[in-house]
């Protein structure tokens, strides 16, 4: 990826300049912004790998901005706020924030969190909520993210369990990308809990429902020594 490109968003000029300078000295390319329109301008100018987004932006709300960004963008977003109650953190996570850092913070801790989120984003499957409300088409199948309904090429609705649906959404967010069992477990929120065997069993159950021949899968393939890959093009619409 080269040098990571960060967008620092804070309406407090002193804080914005401090973070920008600190992160530049830490080896990042950093663009500062003070409000929603400046965020859009920065995104229009080129690639952004991570956004540090203050929650309180004058008349604007960083949580609402995060929700809007999630509709069109998939770069990691770290919310920064003096509001640190559990329900305030949850509000950020629910709209797609990758992390939530409370003010005041140790700059070195912030740097560690930025690096951790960037590292995770480079290899970890895209989080499900980023696309969960869309309409997906793949290999003749259709998944309605709003209704959690899966329809076969023949037009029949196929019932998936909650876990099977979660796995399908991870795969749909990462077509043609090899995923290890560990990455799948982390994307499902099972890091440190689900064994590789449990992921294998979950894949087997999903294959039984979406493959014409589960013993010779064409959609969800095994990559020996790696894990699994959704070997199908995926189209996404918001309708």
Structural class of the secondary elements?
alpha/beta
Mean pLDDT equals 87
Low-confidence stretches at least 5 residues in length (pLDDT < 50)?
Answer: none
Please state how the strands of the largest beta sheet are arranged side by side.
Answer: 2-1-3-6-7
Order of helices and strands: EHEHEEEHEHEHEEEEHEHHEEE
Number of helices: 8
| Shape, per Cα inertia axes | elongated
CATH level-four homologous superfamily name of the largest domain? Response regulator
The end-to-end span amounts to 33 Å
CATH architectural label of the largest domain? 3-Layer(aba) Sandwich
Structural domains: how many: 2
Instruction: Examine the coordinates and then state which fold CATH places here, giving the name of the CATH topology of the largest domain.
Output: Rossmann fold
Largest beta-sheet characterization: 5 strands, parallel
Give a count of the beta strands, DSSP E runs of length 2 or more.
Answer: 15
**Approximately what portion of the residues adopt beta-strand conformation?**
15-25%
Instruction: Evaluate the radius of gyration.
Output: 20 Å
What is the C-level CATH assignment of the largest domain?
Alpha Beta
């Amino acid at each position: 990826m080269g040098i990571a490109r960060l967008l620092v968003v804070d309406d407090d000029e002193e804080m914005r300049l401090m973070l920008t300078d600190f992160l530049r000295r830490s080896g990042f390319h950093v663009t500062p912004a003070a409000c929603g329109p400046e965020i859009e301008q920065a995104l229009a100018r080129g690639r952004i790998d991570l956004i540090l987004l203050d929650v309180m932006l004058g008349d604007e709300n960083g949580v609402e901005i995060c929700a809007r960004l999630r509709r069109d963008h998939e770069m990691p977003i770290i919310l920064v706020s003096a509001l640190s109650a559990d329900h305030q953190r949850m509000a950020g996570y629910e709209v797609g924030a990758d992390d939530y850092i409370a003010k005041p913070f140790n700059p070195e801790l912030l740097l560690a969190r930025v690096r951790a989120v960037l590292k995770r984003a480079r290899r970890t499957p895209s989080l499900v909520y980023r696309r969960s409300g869309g309409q997906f088409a793949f290999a003749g199948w259709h998944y309605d993210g709003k209704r959690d309904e899966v329809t076969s090429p023949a037009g029949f609705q196929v019932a998936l369990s909650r876990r099977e649906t979660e796995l399908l959404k991870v795969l749909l967010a990462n077509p043609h990308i090899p995923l290890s069992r560990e990455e799948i477990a982390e994307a499902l929120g099972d890091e440190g809990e689900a064994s590789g065997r449990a992921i294998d069993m979950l894949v087997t159950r999903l294959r039984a429902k979406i493959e014409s021949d589960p013993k010779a899968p064409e959609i969800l393939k095994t990559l020996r020594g790696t894990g699994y890959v959704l070997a199908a093009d995926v189209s996404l619409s918001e309708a």
